Amino acid sequence: MHLRECLSCGHVGCCDSSKNKHATHHFVDTGHPIVRSFEPGEDWRWCYIDRSFV
Questions:
Q1: What CATH number does the domain containing 47 carry?
Q2: What does the pLDDT look like over 1-38, one tens digit per residue?
């Protein structure tokens, strides 16, 4: 399981490799489009709307 942080509100949820996919459910519920990896040593962001790294 890996964690993702919402850049709109700071919510931290688990990635799509996890059973519950909390980060994606947060996007669906709120419309907050961009998350970043919350893992040490990782520095990337993902846009759910464009379905691409930003």
A1: 3.30.40.10
A2: 899 999 999 999 999 999 999 999 999 999 999 999 99
- Per the structure, how many domains does the chain have? 1
> What contacts 21, CB < 8 A, 6 or more positions away?
13, 14, 15
* Residues 16/5, Cβ–Cβ less than 8 Å: no
Q: What global pTM score does this model have?
A: 0.93
Which range marks the domain in which residue 18 is found?
A: 3-53
**Beta bridge mates, 5:** 12, 36
